[in-house]
Design a protein that fits this description.
22% of the residues lie in helices and 32% in strands. The protein is of the alpha+beta class. It folds into two domains: 225 residues, 2-Layer Sandwich (Antithrombin, Chain I, domain 2), CATH 3.30.497.10; 86 residues, no CATH class. Strands 2-1-3-15-14-13 form a six-stranded mixed beta sheet, sandwiched between helices. A four-stranded antiparallel beta sheet has the order 8-7-6-9.
């Protein structure tokens, strides 16, 4: 994968993590869980940027972190590289109404066989889109996260599905939680013992120390590892995530368990020197299994994804179609499962677009202009009765900071 593209996607991942210390789907509950992938969003934003103009192009370019005129090539290279990672499936799909004209230069850049037709019947189209999502994620995601109705002219989607088995499987056992937020629960505990202390690192971020554990996939099963992150009690989830992202991408230094002194070396990490009959170090890991699903509405954070102008109305994507298109929805469904034998994660991201008619000015009219540049009054009047509900006088209008 091109280094500049990887760095750009990682930056979006970090911004998303920092922007969403969220509950499963909404940012209001910082104590909840979530799963998301910027790698599923970034290629779609790049393809949109390639066909955009004006402010929409500028905003998408800023979200991508690379020039818009190189974005499509970078997206295609990234998608091909993702599909080449062992254990990972990556797919791109495009669906359009048959009467929607597409710019050949733009559509020719999509993967072969990606383009399909929308019928205009929401039920039929929904069935086809859901079937694609389920097939491309091996059933891990069974619904396309797209708002599809009779106005939908275009759906652009990506799918990612990762499966790996552990190099060293965990043993599973019930574990009672003696304290903390899980107190009283009977947990599905996972434990393993090995001789690789350097798989444990401690990094220091804005929330203090964070302990990272690398759990590698078995050779040949996957080109991916999973890193577990543990911060101090009460540390903001966003800070723990961004610290972990910085460490695993090499932007933040860390110390391995081999390098740290005996004692409480990091959150959840205790080190000591003991007598042993064997020369190898001993590492014992105790964690818990989990499965989590999340739904993300990307338009709740349009600035983060460069979609503010694109979602305000049609007419921003002449490089995609001569018809004036605007973004109607942008969503992601994601899941992750961590268990004794391995790890699965999947996400489907979908952007829907609709067309609007060109603006026409068939009449000649008079125009009046009114400007306010000194103190003024206002009235709020009930239309039915003429009752003045509120009245006031403005001397200090709002100002930009």
């Amino acid at each position: 994968m091109r280094k500049s593209t990887v760095e750009a996607v990682n930056r979006l991942t970090a911004r998303w993590a920092a922007n969403r210390p969220e509950g499963a789907s909404e940012p209001a509950d910082p104590a909840g869980g979530t799963v998301f992938t910027a790698a599923g969003v970034w290629p779609l934003l790049a393809l949109l940027a390639d066909g955009a103009e004006g402010p929409a192009r500028t905003e998408l370019e800023q979200a991508l972190g690379i020039p818009a005129d190189t974005a499509a090539d970078a997206a295609r290279e990234l998608l091909a590289a993702l599909d080449g990672v062992r254990g990972l499936r990556a797919a791109t799909g495009l669906w359009t109404r048959r009467d929607l004209p597409l710019e050949e230069r733009w559509s020719a850049g999509l993967p072969e066989g990606a383009h399909r037709a929308l019928t205009g019947d929401p039920g039929t189209d929904r069935e086809a889109l859901d079937a694609w999502a389920a097939d491309r994620t091996d059933g891990l995601i069974d619904t396309m996260p797209a708002a599809v109705d009779r106005r939908t002219d275009l759906v652009l989607a990506s799918a990612l599905a990762l499966r790996l088995t552990w190099e060293e499987p965990f043993a599973e056992r019930p574990v009672p939680a003696p304290h903390g937020p899980w107190n009283g629960l009977r947990l599905r505990g996972l434990t393993v013992t090995h001789a690789f202390p350097d798989r444990i690192r401690v990094a220091r971020g804005p929330c203090g120390p964070v302990t990272l554990l690398a759990v590698p996939g078995a050779p040949g099963s996957s080109g991916a590892d999973v890193h577990l992150l543990l911060g101090e009690p009460g540390a903001p989830p966003a800070d723990v995530l961004t610290t972990g992202i910085a460490e695993v991408t090499g932007a933040l230094a860390s110390s391995t368990a081999s390098e740290l002194p005996d004692g409480d070396a990091g959150p959840g990490l205790s080190l000591r020197t003991v007598d042993s009959a064997r020369p190898e170090p001993v590492v014992r890991i105790d964690t818990v299994a989990f499965e989590i699903r999340a739904e993300h509405d990307l338009l709740r954070h349009p600035g983060l994804f460069g979609l503010r102008t694109a979602a305000e109305g049609p007419g921003h994507f002449p490089g995609i179609s001569a018809a004036p298109l605007g973004v109607g929805s942008a969503r992601q469904s994601a899941m992750a499962r961590f268990h004794a034998e391995g790890f699965e994660a999947a996400a489907v991201t979908a952007v829907t677009m609709y067309r609007g008619g060109p603006r026409r000015s068939p009449y000649r009219v008079r125009r009046a202009e009114f400007g306010v540049s000194r103190p003024f009054g206002f009235l709020a009047v009930d239309r039915g009765s003429g009752l003045v509900l509120f009245a006031g006088w403005v001397t200090d209008p709002a100002t930009l900071t």
